[in-house]
Design goal:
Helix content: 40-55%
Distance between the termini: 35 Å
Number of strands: 3
Strand content: 15-25%
Length: about 80
């Protein structure tokens, strides 16, 4: 198994991409070359309202994307 496939951050990134296909999701690069914030850019307007959502970790990005989904469908909670 490759190192990237067992890395928890890589696994979280894959899970976010699967769960939120209406967004392009990636990790930003910091000025020192290390990975930084988690970023989601809206591709499908039915899946969110903000063009870009940024969070400091995968769990928070997931929470924000659930809220975005809810706002897009009008419920406000993503459920």
């Amino acid at each position: 198994m490759s190192k990237s496939s067992t890395n928890p951050d890589h696994m979280a990134l894959v899970a976010l991409r699967v769960d939120f296909p209406g967004h392009s999701i990636w990790r930003a690069n910091r000025s020192d070359g290390r990975l930084g914030d988690w970023v989601a850019t809206l591709r499908d307007p039915s899946q969110g309202v903000d063009p870009t959502v940024i969070a400091s970790d995968a769990d928070r990005l997931r929470e924000l994307l659930i809220i975005e989904r809810g706002l897009a469908i009008g419920s406000g909670d993503g459920l």
